[in-house]
């Protein structure tokens, strides 16, 4: 089986990948150390926000409006709407990483409280 290699040699911003998912339109979304990238099979589109606390992104989710959600390791939850990466909120940091989960219209933040 032939494969397609996606890396910095052919246009990806970073080879350190934290999450990768495909949306309903067929785009491949890649969260990595330099932000989040959309790949359409030919071209890469890189997204970042100049005021986010950390460039590294992870935890890709899609909502009912077609927005792409993700988070960084500094506790910020971000989403892409109108082709721009926006900051939704900052999660109160506990002692460890707090993963997010998106279900229909609700954003859940999983936190361990001692």
Task: Please describe what this structure looks like.
The chain has a single domain (8-109), classed as Neuraminidase (6 Propeller). Helices cover 0% and strands 46% of the residues. It has no helices and 10 strands. The protein has strands at 17-22, 28-32, 35-39, 44-47, 57-62, 68-72, 76-81, 84-90, 100-103, 106-109. The strands form 3 sheets. Strands 1-2-3-4 form a 4-stranded antiparallel β-sheet, with no helix packed on it. A 4-stranded antiparallel β-sheet has the order 5-6-7-8, with no helix packed on it. A two-stranded antiparallel ribbon has the order 9-10. It is globular, with a radius of gyration of 14 Å. The mean pLDDT is 87.
Summarize the helices and strands and which ones pair or pack.
Blueprint: E1 17-22, E2 28-32, E3 35-39, E4 44-47, E5 57-62, E6 68-72, E7 76-81, E8 84-90, E9 100-103, E10 106-109
Antiparallel strand pairs: 1-2, 2-3, 3-4, 5-6, 6-7, 7-8, 9-10
Please name the defining characteristics of this protein:
Neuraminidase; 4-stranded antiparallel β-sheet; mainly beta; single chain; 10 strands; 114 residues; 0% helix
What is the number of beta strands? 10
Give the ordered list of helices and strands. EEEEEEEEEE
Average per-residue pLDDT, rounded, comes to 87
Helical content, roughly?
under 10%
CATH class category: Mainly Beta
Query: How many strands, which pairing sense, and closed or not: the largest β-sheet?
Result: 4 strands, antiparallel
Report the span from N to C terminus: 48 Å
Looking at this structure, what is the CATH superfamily?
Answer: TolB, C-terminal domain
Gross CATH architecture: 6 Propeller
**What's the domain count?**
1
Assign an overall shape: globular
Compute the CA-based radius of gyration.
14 Å
**What structural class should be given to the helix and strand makeup?**
mainly beta
Tally the helices: what do you get?
Answer: 0
In the CATH hierarchy, the third-tier topology is known as Neuraminidase
Q: Name the beta content range.
A: over 45%
